[in-house]
Amino acid sequence: MPRKKTTKPTRRRFGAVRQYRSGRWTASYHDLSGKLHRAKETFETKTDASLWLTQVEADLTRGDWFDPDAGAVNFEKYAMRWVNERGVMATTDELYRRLLRLHILPTFGRWNLDQINAPMVRSWRTERLGATGATTVAKSYRLLKAIMETAVTDEAIRRNPCRIEGAGKEVAEERPVATVDEVFALAEAIGIRWRFMVFLGAFATLRPEELAELRRSSVNLTKDTLKIRLASPELSTGKRVTGPPKTAAGKRTITLPAFLHTELRQHMAWFAEQEPDGLVFVGEKGKPFRRSTFGRKWRKACAKVGMPGFRFYDLRHTGNTLLAESGASTKDLMVRMGHSSYRAAMIYQHSTAKRQRELAEKLDTHVRAERQDTPEEPENGASGALVVRPA
């Protein structure tokens, strides 16, 4: 029996349709650049194929047409190129690559951009939540979403498949705030060489990477000020990468409180490198301090004063909270912290229990003054609350 021949393409004003030996129909067309495209699926009837071409023609006319082959790009290659093009700080670059390697590429690395869909993303997130911490999953999801959003901008895909509401939000536990006495206790416990670093972490709210790159030339002993121009974050490999601070606002001048006047001079005379551009903080052997070595000293000091788990970075949180309680505005905090966004500064505008008591006492005094009232002890000790009655 002779094989059924494939019909020749039907001439149309736009595109062409033809029938396969199986009886199903296909459609093809040229885009505005002259590139030939063929429908990825086949159609049951010639009418269905013609309708598909009509829709494509309408999209081209309106400017809504999307190249169906644009998303045929391997996700891993696209993601690595995306990271290379970001131009972020070394620590952020290291974080992106670690999240990709450990949490994203094992699932999506072998797929093309246009093959990744919303159900795949939901399944991946569920699996990750069962395997690692929620904070890491949130960071990984934000990174995946950012990469796919760039793919949308590049017109490689029509829509971002990362559409899980709230999946990129981190709900971090509230970090502890040390008291002034606890800060001084930590400074005593860690030893005289590192005492001033503790004070700068708390009362100048400097980041560890900013302290690592603080130079003698940046210290003004007359005005008690520090110029922050560079930072040296330490990567997980132990390598320090010197460059600008974390944000553009990180370049700033910090004025130290007067009670650190003597501490500053003693440290500069006893421990800082004597060269004009020497480091302010160096180890016992005269070399830049290492995170691992200092970390052991820090944990030992925290245990000694009964503050296990308190991080050095929590000193910055402590200092900013003290500033907010002292009346610093959000803008004041932004300048001192080196933040460029109000969102970051607002973290330190929260009220502590002590501050809430102070506010309650002030409100009590104000209301009594307005009403000329005096407090009385509760009758019969019923509730333990003070009863306010006219004097």
Describe this structure in words.
Helices cover 45% and strands 8% of the residues. It has 391 residues and is an alpha+beta fold. It has four domains: 10-62, 2-Layer Sandwich (GCC-box Binding Domain), CATH 3.30.730; 75-153; 180-349, Orthogonal Bundle (hpI Integrase, Chain A), CATH 1.10.443; 358-390, no CATH class. α3 packs across α5 (134-153) and α6 runs antiparallel to α7. The model is unreliable at 381-388 (pLDDT under 50).
Structure summarized in a few sentences:
With 391 residues, the protein is an alpha+beta fold. 45% of the residues lie in helices and 8% in strands. It is built from 14 helices and 9 strands.
Question: Which secondary structure elements does this structure contain, and how are they paired or packed?
Answer:
Layout: E1 10-11, E2 16-19, E3 25-30, E4 36-38, H1 46-62, H2 75-84, H3 90-108, H4 118-129, H5 134-153, H6 180-190, H7 192-203, H8 208-212, E5 219-220, E6 225-228, E7 252-255, H9 261-270, H10 291-304, H11 313-325, H12 330-337, H13 342-346, H14 353-371, E8 373-376, E9 387-390
Antiparallel strand pairs: 1-2, 2-3, 3-4, 5-6, 6-7, 8-9
